[in-house]
Specification:
165 residues
Length: 165
């Protein structure tokens, strides 16, 4: 189990917390989720709106709290990251907003986000195709092909003839 998954499960033990998501809000992907099966599109839209708004022109965003009739949605940007954030949904009548926000801030400061392995070769069938192994070329065949290519006419396109010997 990754460390961030364990830390998110610990956050889920906070009274009233229904779900916790790790979100890459720039790309719009949810990287990890624990708790109730809800989506994090609201977090992505809110963070994009706040980030492009006038508040973030002069200062860094730390966290955002949005409340509706039943829930609080808490958003906190991970320390050391510009595009990863944590989203926690808290039941309004069961949880304590201050306590949940404090735990989320702590998690955002101490979260151990997995670093992608860049030195590991890509999995088979994904990523960059494997280079082909170079095979020796018969020099006489190569010289005949080059000689034939040199004899082609380049003055009039479409009138060239291939000479194969």
């Amino acid at each position: 189990m990754r460390a961030i998954d364990r830390q998110m499960r610990d956050m889920l033990q906070t009274p009233g917390v229904r779900s916790v998501h790790l979100v890459d809000w720039r790309s719009g992907h949810t990287l990890a989720r624990t708790g109730d099966d809800d989506r994090a599109e609201d977090a992505i839209a809110i963070l994009r709106a706040v980030h492009t708004g006038p508040l973030c022109a002069t200062q860094e965003m730390e966290d955002v709290v949005v409340s509706d009739a039943d829930h609080h949605v808490l958003l906190a940007v991970l320390a050391g990251s510009d595009d990863l954030c944590l989203r926690a949904r808290v039941a309004r009548h069961e949880g304590n907003l201050g306590f949940a926000l404090r735990r989320l801030r702590l998690l955002a400061r101490t979260a151990q986000v997995p670093v992608p392995h860049r030195d590991r070769p890509p999995a088979r069938g994904r990523g960059v195709p494997r280079p082909r192994i170079a095979t020796p070329v018969d020099r006489s065949v190569l010289e005949r092909v080059l000689t034939a290519l040199r004899t082609l006419s380049t003055d009039h396109p479409g009138t060239a003839r291939a000479v194969i010997t």
